[in-house]
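Meet my pick.
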Amino acid sequence: MSNRRTLPVLEPDVVVPCCPPLTERTLTAAEAERTAAMFKALSDPVRLRLFSAVASAPGGEACVCDISDVGVSQPTVSHHLKKLKDAGLLASERRGTWVYYRVEPSVLAGMGRLLTGSTLA
């Protein structure tokens, strides 16, 4: 008797950018609002450092306990992480007493595509 079983084939993550490349056509009002919110969230140096720490973390996710050393208090770190999450840049998951953050799957590719006009996968 064999313990072998067939595993399902998973489709790769489909990158769904926020908007078309800037060189393709003029953004709609809704696309411009959504894109501006993302860039506004990243315009703060502390938020940009936190986003970078999460994006470059091993395994693609970071515990808040590992990324909070950015020169501001813990409540301020939480505030900035919430702003990044509200802008659709980060997702979070609570595990016990800690919260783990990861970059939303299509964010980096979508933002790159928006600015460069190329397809990044």
Summary: Residues 7-17 have pLDDT under 50 and may be disordered. Helices lie at 29-42, 45-55, 64-67, 74-86, 107-116. The chain is about 45% helix and 10% strand.
